[in-house]
Design a protein that fits this description.
Elements lengths: L1 E3 L22 E12 L4 H10 L4 E7 L1 E14 L2 E19 L2 E21 L4 E20 L3 E3 L5 E18 L2 E13 L5 E15 L9 E6 L16 E11 H4 L9 H13 L4 E10 L6 H21 L8 E7 L17 H6 L5 E11 L3
Parallel strand pairs: 1-8, 14-15
Antiparallel strand pairs: 2-4, 2-11, 3-5, 4-5, 5-6, 6-7, 7-9, 9-10, 10-11, 12-13, 13-16, 14-16
C-alpha cells in the first residue's frame, strides 16, 4: 500500500484581471448577491505527488466551477467611499485522478467573512463604477478518498486563514431604494494542506439603502417678485395692457443635476417644466441664467461647473421650445456668491455633514424679464 502524505487541490486560478450618484449623506445599506465561481486545479502538483509515490497518472477530470453567493451590509460615508462586510460562499470544487495504482478523489469547499473598502466613481445620476479591496477570513474544508493501492493519511483536513481580496464592477440605481450591482471579485485562498490560490466570483447583487433621508422632491426653492427695487419693476397698467415683471427664481442644483454633475436629471426636468408652466403666456424680454456652486473644489473648477450647469438649463429650455435661445444669457458665478456664511459649515470638506450644510450655495438663479397680459 503506497501512502500519500501530501495531496491537495492546490492553486485556484483566474478568470481574468482587470463611481444615480450615491446619496450625499452617510447611510447604511444591505444586500444579497449570487453568481458563479471558478477555480483552477493544479494538475502538475497533483501529478508530481502521485508520481513521487510510484503511481502513473493515466487521466484526470476536474470540477472547477460552482454556484456562489454572498450576503453583506455596509456604510456609505460619502458619494465616493464606503465600508462593507459580509459572508460569502464560493461553492465546491474537485478533481479525480486515475492512476496505475488506484483512483484519488479530492474536493474542497470554501466560505468565510470579508471586510472591504468600496470606492465609487459616478458616471451619471444612475450609473457608477465600483472598485474594492479588502481582507477575507476564509475556511477551506478538504475531502480526499482513494481506491486500490492508494491511501490518504488525512482524509478531511480543514483550515481557516486570513488573506486578501479585490474586485471591480458597476452599480445602477433603479430608484432611491434599490441599486443593482454587477461585480467580478478575486479571493485569495489558503487551502487546508498548505497551498494558496485564487477563486474568482462573478455576481449580480441587489443593494437596499436604509437610514437616510429621502431625496428632495423637485421644487422651485424660491420665487420672488420685488417691487420698487432695481431688480424688479411692477406696474399697474390699465386693464388688458401687459404687466412688466422681473422675477428672480432660484432652483436647487442638487435637484436639477445631482451632486457635482452638470447633466439635467429627471427630477431637474420636472422642476424646469414646472417653471415654464408657471410662466405660461409670458412674452419674454430676456432671461439671465446664473450657475452657483458651493466652496468645495478649486475656483477654476467651480466656475467651469457653474457655467456648464447654466448652459445645461438653457439647452433644456430651448429644446422644449419654452424660451428662444437668443433671449437667454448664461453666467457661471462659481462659489463667489454663497448663501451660507464662511464659518458655518465646519468639518472635512467632502464629509456628508458639510456637503449637506452647503446645499443652499448649490443653485441656479433665473432672472426673468417679460410681460404677461393682465387678468380681467
Amino acid at each position: 500500500m503506497k501512502k500519500l502524505h501530501a495531496l491537495c487541490l492546490a492553486s485556484l486560478a483566474a478568470l481574468g484581471s482587470t463611481h444615480v450618484l450615491a446619496q450625499n449623506e452617510g447611510h447604511f445599506y444591505g444586500g444579497v448577491g449570487a453568481g458563479r465561481s471558478q477555480s483552477k486545479i493544479d494538475d502538475d502538483r497533483i501529478n508530481a505527488t502521485l508520481v513521487g509515490q510510484g503511481a502513473t497518472v493515466t487521466s484526470m477530470t476536474h470540477d472547477q466551477r460552482d454556484a456562489a453567493y454572498k450576503v453583506f451590509g455596509g456604510y456609505q460615508f460619502n458619494p465616493y467611499l464606503g465600508v462593507e462586510g459580509g459572508y460569502f460562499n464560493l461553492g465546491e470544487f474537485g478533481f479525480k485522478s486515475i492512476t496505475s495504482a488506484g483512483n484519488l478523489d479530492g474536493r474542497i469547499k470554501v466560505d468565510g467573512m470579508n471586510l472591504d473598502l468600496v470606492g465609487t466613481m459616478p458616471v451619471n445620476d444612475q450609473l457608477s463604477i465600483l472598485g474594492r479591496v479588502g481582507m477575507v477570513r476564509a475556511r477551506a474544508r478538504d475531502t480526499f478518498s482513494s481506491t486500490g493501492g492508494l491511501t490518504v493519511t488525512n482524509p478531511n483536513p480543514e483550515s481557516t486563514q486570513q488573506n486578501y481580496k479585490a474586485g471591480f464592477g458597476f452599480a445602477y440605481k433603479f430608484s432611491q431604494s434599490m441599486t443593482l450591482r454587477g461585480e467580478l471579485e478575486r479571493y485569495r485562498i489558503n487551502d487546508a494542506v498548505g497551498n494558496k490560490g485564487d477563486i474568482n466570483m462573478a455576481s449580480l447583487s441587489l443593494v437596499f439603502p436604509f437610514g437616510r433621508t429621502p431625496a428632495p422632491a423637485p421644487k422651485v426653492v424660491e420665487v420672488v417678485v420685488f417691487q420698487e427695487v432695481p431688480v424688479v419693476v411692477v406696474v399697474a397698467p390699465p386693464a388688458e395692457a401687459p404687466v412688466a415683471d422681473r422675477l428672480r427664481v432660484s432652483l436647487n442644483a442638487d435637484v436639477l443635476f445631482g451632486f457635482d454633475r452638470a447633466t439635467v436629471s429627471p427630477s431637474g426636468k420636472v422642476a424646469l417644466d414646472k417653471f415654464t408652466a408657471d410662466l405660461s403666456g409670458t412674452d419674454y424680454d430676456h432671461i439671465t441664467i446664473e450657475g452657483h456652486t458651493d466652496r468645495i473644489g478649486t475656483q477654476a473648477y467651480n466656475e467651469k461647473l457653474s457655467l456648464q450647469r447654466a448652459d445645461a438649463v438653457k439647452e433644456y429650455l430651448v429644446s422644449r421650445d419654452a424660451i428662444p435661445a437668443n433671449k437667454i444669457t448664461t453666467v457661471g458665478k462659481g462659489s463667489s456668491q454663497p448663501l451660507t456664511s464662511a464659518g458655518v459649515c465646519k468639518g472635512l470638506p467632502t464629509s456628508a455633514a458639510v456637503i449637506a450644510c452647503l446645499e443652499p450655495d448649490r443653485r441656479v438663479d433665473l432672472d426673468v424679464m417679460g410681460s404677461k397680459p393682465a387678468k380681467k
